[in-house]
């Protein structure tokens, strides 16, 4: 049975002050507080820019020993016409200091735009570029695809061949995105973009029970990383904490 880790995307968001973070909490202490309430966080600032090694070391040192970060890969690596071309963006992203997280480094989420369609040869060329480790630290990769063309056995087989996960992404505002639940790696990565502001915990208790059942089923095949992202963002911390409470109950 794998471990289920639950969290949110990032930890800096002004509307969380007073709703998730106490009013008197200093901004520099937000990561420590978030890590005390959640079991994982997806670092998504890396989608837009790189960070210095000192930042990665700081994040490592401000979180509990068993905490794990997922990392969203740079858009400059995935928003390309030809994915399989070796490029400086990939090296720049991977060499910025991720390995400083050590055992706290979880999966890397490679997110592709909805306009990127499945090209088997090009996509396999991209997978071949992804290393299994960075300076001795294991790298795990997850593919978040948004074009329906990826909902095919050839894509599933390709991901399984290279041991990469396919992100299970749910967004009620984008029903055309494929919801792919395929065991192509030894872990599961889920992005739940369906929280609602009219629910204090983002979802009803019954809906959260459904997420509990699903994550436990995934855990039978390995570790699970489940994040409440987007949707009613102000409710995502409450949704993640409610899910943790139900999983521990």
UniProtKB/TrEMBL annotation:
InterPro entries linked to this entry: DUF72, UPF0759_sf
Entries under Pfam families matching the protein: DUF72
Identification of the protein by name: DUF72 domain-containing protein
Entries under SUPFAM superfamilies matching the protein: TM1631-like
């Amino acid at each position: 049975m794998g471990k289920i880790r639950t969290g949110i995307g990032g930890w800096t968001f002004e509307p969380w002050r007073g709703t998730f973070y106490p009013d008197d909490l200093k901004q520099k202490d937000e990561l420590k507080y978030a890590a005390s309430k959640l079991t994982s966080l997806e670092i998504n600032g890396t989608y837009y820019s790189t960070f210095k090694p000192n930042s990665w070391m700081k994040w490592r040192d401000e979180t509990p020993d068993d905490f794990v970060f997922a990392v969203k890969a740079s858009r400059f690596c995935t928003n390309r016409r030809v994915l399989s071309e070796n490029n400086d963006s990939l090296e720049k992203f991977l060499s910025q200091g991720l390995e400083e997280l050590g055992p706290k480094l979880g999966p890397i989420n490679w997110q592709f735009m909805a306009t990127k369609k499945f090209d088997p040869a090009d996509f396999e060329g991209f997978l071949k570029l992804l290393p299994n480790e960075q300076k001795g630290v294991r790298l795990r990769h997850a593919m978040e695809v948004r074009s329906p063309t990826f909902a095919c056995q050839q894509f599933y087989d390709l991901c399984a061949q290279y041991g990469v996960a396919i992100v299970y992404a749910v967004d009620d505002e984008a029903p055309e995105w494929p919801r792919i639940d395929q065991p192509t790696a030894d872990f599961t990565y889920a992005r739940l973009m369906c929280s609602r502001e009219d629910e204090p915990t983002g979802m009803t208790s019954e809906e959260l029970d459904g997420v509990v059942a699903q994550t436990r089923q995934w855990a039978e095949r390995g570790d699970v990383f489940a994040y409440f992202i987007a949707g009613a963002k102000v409710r995502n911390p409450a949704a993640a904490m409610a899910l943790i409470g139900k999983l521990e109950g």
